[in-house]
């Protein structure tokens, strides 16, 4: 019984890691679609989003079945619940990649981004995709230190995000309100995506340590 | 055993309903702070957000204890898991009210909103607070029809949100990029808040019917 249970639990974590890989690829492709005004890439992300939603529904069903049939306790229970939460965050990351792809499609054949802000989005894209790929590793390894190291990348994303605001709100901004609105929303999609990646990593720390980081004073990372 | 279990489950649903009331009040107060550039109200929302976070942590702990000690199955298991998900959405709604309050504070003593868009935010505020208050009712009643009726209000919020974009992107927009950026983000906060309220209601439908609306073709509401 316990044996079968741990096989199922490993399978569940494996599916979650696969979801991380899916949403990393989605955001990588969406960013390329955005930077290059590439309609085919945007369509691919938009078409693939249903797969992420399906993967999430499958993870959740698997987790529910585990809870109902095996009634896990202690660390095992925490792991299953962490998977349920993480699957929700990962689905949301897929949605955010979808939003980026839709923004690229909406402005096609124009580029949604004026040249002056392209480097920021290129860097934010790389940072958040790296976050998602390392989240995949954390799900596999449950390495607490690796999870904590995600925080630095998230800080970098927040920094670029803040800087973007100063660029579009500067007096010499010459690309008008519509571009500023696009950039505002796009910046927020990347920032939220990074937050969700960190939240998945935090859940995995919770699994490994039994303590949820960020829920008590001094307990943040 | 079962008896005690149902008492605890009712208590858990009661705490969730209380969280709904908290985040409804938070958004109501934040909207007033935004519309009237009222710093004291904004500060109140900002100061109270920790209470929502605490309530969520408490709901989650209570749900974990229930799962570990009672190992519920079938509808009972679904209910506990729905509560865990709903508590996460409700905490997020509290965060979004916090963001609105912070936007009001950031622009104080100025008003963050030009007069021309105030009616839209006034109406969006009323619609989303009404959504949260009705979500509270749905949590208490588990009334499937009441949950479905939330969809119409959510559509109304989406409609105002879309219209806002056409206002700020119009050629005769005269309030500059900074105001447009504020309005873009604020509009998104209200729209996300409404989405989360609907998602909580959907979870409650899942509890009552065993089917998650929006997970299959034709199953959306």
From TrEMBL, chains A, B:
Residues 16-103, 122-203 form the PhoU domain. Pfam families: PhoU. It comes from the Bacteria. Keywords: Cytoplasm, Phosphate transport, Transport. It is found in: Cytoplasm. Its main location: cytoplasm. Plays a role in the regulation of phosphate uptake. Homodimer. Belongs to the PhoU family. This is Phosphate-specific transport system accessory protein PhoU. The lineage of its organism: Bacteria, Bacillati, Actinomycetota, Actinomycetes, Pseudonocardiales. The gene is phoU.
